[in-house]
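Curious: can you check?
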Amino acid sequence: MADRQLGVVEDTLYVPMLGRIYASENHRSILYDRKALGLKAHLPREVVENDSQTQYTYLASAVRSANMDRFIANFLADRPDGVIVQLGCGLETTYYRDDGHAPWYGVDLPHVIDYRRTILPETGREHYIAGGAFEEDWLERVRREHSGAPLLVTASGLFYYFEEEQVLGLIRMLQGKGDIQLLFDAVSKSGMFMMRKKYMKTVGHEDARMFFYVDSARELASKVGGNVTVLAEENFYCHVSKVGLRLSTKLSMRVSDLLGMVKMVHLGLS
């Protein structure tokens, strides 16, 4: 059993892992993650046995992974020489579900990377960078090693915990560094209220403070300034097969999409 030495925000990295395991065991049409299933026995027992989550919260995490997979696959199909950079990689297993060819970089804080290596050691095309997502060191390294390659930078479940100015600063940092796209999930202002009130409490992390939301990707792009293209702003659950889901889960997904409460945002930067 791996030892946990994580803070309040970092501790939330177990939530998406449990969601991928739940979907893989119960709803493979949404997501099947062989690697996550294999890691179940290595997670702390109290994490695996925690039954406070609902079907909706489990699947919200799995749907985010499925959405990320789809955008990454489309990016690599269009740019076969592309490089993937995963900010806040935590215990994500996206690398094991990709096309099998792209160079891959996982960025997270040093103690999270140390923990990740205990159960997900680097292999093949995957490289870990210990450092802050909002610092430029990781970008400089990737550009040294792949100077002209198109980059897809992903932030899965990350930006919620940071102030808007920090996120805007990160996006501006990526500008002028070549062909770069940024993919992340976000909530609207009303969605943020619901996450603070219900979702984080349900998954057992009501102490994790959340700040960043996106009501409009175009408004966000205008705040960034410069040449930012909104490639996609997509409702979170629009591609999800809802066959076999509980009625309460279907209704929650439906309301979320109708009100635009959770979304995927895909930006092009130059």
In short: Residues 55-78 form the longest helix (24 residues). The two ends are 44 Å apart (CA to CA).
